[in-house]
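Notes from hallway chat w/ T.B., transcribed later so I don't forget. T.B. wanted the structure written out for a chain they're using in a teaching module, and asked if we could keep both sequence and structure tokens in one place. Agreed to drop them here.
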Amino acid sequence: MSSHIPSTIKIILTFPLLLMVGGCLGIKEIQSEIYVTSLGVDYSNDEYHLYFQAFGFNNVSGTDPGIASDPAPIVVGHGKGKTIQGAFDDIEKNSVNPLYYGHIQTFLISKNVLDNHLNEFFDFFSRDYYLRYNTLVYGFEDDINKLMNVHGLFYKPPILTFPSDPDEQLFFNSFISTSTVQDMIKRYYEPVGSIMVPSLKVSEEYWIEDNEPKDILKISGAYFISKQKLNGWVTEEELSGLDWFNKDFKKMKLSIKDQYVSLFIDNIDYDIKIVGKNTPKYILNLDVKASIRENPKNIGKETIEKDVKKIISSQFQKTFTKGLEIKSDIFNLSEKSYRFRPQSWTVDQINTISENSIEKLTINVFIKDEGANK
């Protein structure tokens, strides 16, 4: 039997291979592109300013890209223009490599944009198919170049640090409900309720690296927006009342400092009832389960439970009062009235949140064990 293959068949077999090789030749190596991982938006002097934090794959080496022997360089690009698209065009035409936006993990939006220019940002966002709706959003007022030039511990690149991957970082700081672009757009045009946008700051108070104070990014508080208007900013400490009404609750630490007692808050369950005639009022019921981590003075369970109730009540009242000061419904109580009893009141009546809006707050605390005694 002859092994000779007709030339026509050789051509047919070879042609797809040529196509494959030709296609591969047209593909860019990942090292040749700039992968934008975070996008900052500011507005000042009648211009938009965009800041691109970039990460190059040529920085990734070894088996674990999370820990490197040397810090991966942080590259920050800056473009400006009369429109957001103009600022994009400005930085793109001055880029030394093609820019790729499919890996953007976070948006940093300045106070100025949150206050007067979110409409423009949402409009641009809806027209750019590279930008994803589940991207996390943070607010800022500090120097964005400083915010974007923070490495993680152990030389981790920014994409592996807190703003891009908050789940583990916020494991014991449950009140911060991370906000995405989708969350903001969905609620931005609602006539009731408020949007919380966590704010970032640089802190060097907690860690030392290579015998030098180590900068880390930290939640400083949150901005609150309602009815397309920025109402104000609240510090992290003043927001502690949100700990107890967070559907994304995981686990939280709590200390009774004067008693030297430390606890894990293991579970939180709450319900909100809507009552009232002329305006809505709310009855809040809160059930908290905790376990003792440390109790060197052997304080009794009943005493600890009473102390925890006092702490929760105080934190709730502080946060609620701060919301009244900035005219913002921090706990989004009005959303419940608007959703479940819209026929009972007008929108203006539903938005009437005052110190009398809380009809009753009931707090039940259950200590699951008396372990960790001295």
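Follow-up for T.B.: The chain has two domains: 31-235, 240-374. Might be a good example for the class.
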